[in-house]
Specification:
Length: 287
């Protein structure tokens, strides 16, 4: 993309547009073919892997050297495990893996800093566990609605993490976050009210798990993350537990209204996180 753009900003925007279009076409094709949830569940992790390739301009060799290269394989292994779990119909195992993965990825990413930074690695693992719990447990009633809400939540969180990653001296993670968010937006747009859309084990372990690993890398390796802004952003994963009781109380049954309320509540946390960054760094924020 950099060869077609005149600046890094143009390259990023072009990459977001191209990846968003590819995700939209892939999602639309699967919907037209009425593909099952096992196939649509691959849209999110596949988009993450393409976003990684666009952000880092490479597919790392195996075994990976360095935390950044490990992110790719966390996503690949997570996707493979998710597919196997869904194919075997082992929902209980899938739920266990979803909660165990952030702990394993924190230890894997932070290996070079162990045992000296044991508390930091443990904190990164706990943060990832809380994020994954909020993402996997807070859902709507029907599975298709649940899937689009999960994907929406992940996409908004990725966009909110982008300025935190940039502030943490990781421009590549900044690009990865925005590229992935653009792809998720396209996937959600193509699958609103699609009963065959799945955001299940592969999406959680491969897509969300890969993004959690990227955030853990910024936190543990660059060690320049604004922890206050990250804590505020993490509140976005509480949204499902807050929105549903409110909607039931006001008896809002229209799906468009429900989704709009959900997105609005998510954006409150993201806006508060961005406001925290601006208030703390102002004109010194890297652009």
């Amino acid at each position: 993309m950099s060869g077609l753009a005149r600046s890094p900003q143009e390259a990023l925007i072009l990459g977001m547009a191209v990846l968003g279009l590819l995700a939209l076409v892939a999602a639309g094709l699967l919907r037209w073919l009425r593909a099952g949830r096992v196939w649509t569940d691959l849209l999110v992790p596949a988009s993450f892997l393409v976003a990684y390739w666009l952000a880092y301009n490479k597919v790392p060799s195996f075994p990976p050297v360095g935390a950044v290269n490990k992110i790719f394989f966390v996503a690949v292994i997570g996707t493979a495990l998710g597919v196997l779990v869904e194919a075997a119909g082992r929902g209980g195992l899938g739920r266990a893996l979803v909660l165990a993965q952030p702990i394993a990825s924190a230890a894997y990413i932070g290996t070079a800093r162990l045992p000296d930074a044991l508390l930091e690695v443990a904190a990164a693992a706990l943060w990832g566990l809380l994020v994954m719990y909020g993402l996997s447990r807070g859902t709507g009633q029907s599975e298709d609605e649940s899937g689009t809400r999960r994907a929406t939540l992940l996409g908004i969180a990725c966009a909110g993490f982008a300025p935190i990653a940039l502030l943490g001296a990781s421009s590549s993670s900044f690009q990865l976050s925005l590229l992935f968010a653009a792809a998720i937006a396209a996937i959600v747009a193509a699958n609103i009210s699609n009963p065959n859309f799945g955001f299940r084990s592969a999406s959680l372990l491969g897509g969300a798990g890969g993004m959690i690993a990227a955030a853990q890398t910024v936190t543990l390796i660059t060690r320049k993350t604004d922890m206050l802004a990250l804590a505020v952003l993490t509140l976005v994963f509480v949204t499902p537990f807050v929105v549903d009781p409110i909607l039931r109380r006001v008896r809002a049954t229209n799906k468009v209204v429900q989704l709009a309320a959900f997105v609005g509540m998510c954006l409150l946390s993201v806006g508060a996180s961005v406001a925290t960054v601006i208030a703390r760094y102002g004109s010194s924020f890297p652009v």
